[in-house]
Write a structure and sequence with these properties.
Elements lengths: L2 E8 L10 E7 L2 E8 L6 E5 L4 E9 L2 E10 L4 E6 L7 E4 L8 H9 L39 H10 L2 H15 L2 E2 L4 E2 L4 E8 L2 E6 L3 H7 L4 E3 L14 E9 L6 E8 L6 E7 L15 H10 L12 H11 L16 E4 L12
Parallel strand pairs: 1-7
Antiparallel strand pairs: 1-4, 2-3, 2-5, 5-6, 8-17, 9-10, 11-12, 12-16, 13-14, 14-15, 15-16
Helix pairs in contact: 1-2, 3-6
Amino acid sequence: MPVVVNVQPSDACGRPLPIRCRIRITRNDRLDAEGFCEANGTQIALTVPVPDAVYALFLSAGSFDDSSVFVSVEKADATARVLCLASARAVAPILPTYAELPDELQRVLERSPVLDIKANREISDATLPSRSPQSRSIRERSLPDRGERPVRDGERRWQLLDREAQAGLLNLFAKMRSFKLSAQQRSGWSYVVELRAVARDRILAVVDWALKPDTEGATTAFHDAKELLPIFHKPPPHFSRAGSWKSNEPFGNLQFSFFSSQEARNELWVDADVDDAAGIGHAEQVLRNESRGLFKAIFRFIPGLPEGKSHPYDIHQILLFHQKPTLTGEIDKYQPCYRIRVEGTPADYAMPPS
């Protein structure tokens, strides 16, 4: 007996797509249903011939990436809500000026040393400065008051980043700020002292040593991410691995890879990044990039393997869609620091809306 699949395409803010999209439903490589959902249409009903089966649903919508999910259809009608990410190629970010940056981020940029800050590449030894033999411990450092801060240096460092790296840094800032750690409910970002390197999908930062035990103690928010292959998250020169911890959300999860200094007592650095998805068992996740999707499908059961370079505009949308406050209070709602516009959509369309 045929059953109906109600398909609900939505953007990262949970709204109907602002443009027309095509939907195909297949089973065993055979097309069983096809149709179009009009711009701002809440859903489309497509009839499939066989109940108690798993179907593959494919959605294409111009300036949005093609999306694929699996839908389990039982005897009754089914509903499939599909997250559609705006293609990074079609995105124009609306980024803040330096003066518009949150004060906590300005403080770190102004305190950070002058670096060759790189975007669009993995953080590697080439991005790291030579360490001073007079390096002080974290406890001996303090952030100056607002009136004493070297604003020009902070603004210059911000301007060294291209748009994608700025977006990536804002993603990490907002994500880390949304975590409340320790009995004092400190935000994850409040532990950051200095930035040492910035790429579009990660940062390397000097942090307060307390971040490590406070992360380890947040057992409802983080788990120990043991890496089978230590070639990833390579320690900087003169540092040793000090563990890796990953937050427990299934999508847009935060990872801290800690490195302890071999020369300065209590000096701790962290490689922080946000992954698009974590773990196995999320067959419904959006397959935005075919080659990356294949890589994950083959290797995702091995902890520590990279999942492909995540684009900051994708991460921005994933966090908008998936991150909600937790009952434990350790994770707040994601509060983005920038918006994006998408070509081919109405002029008043942006994510998040103003």
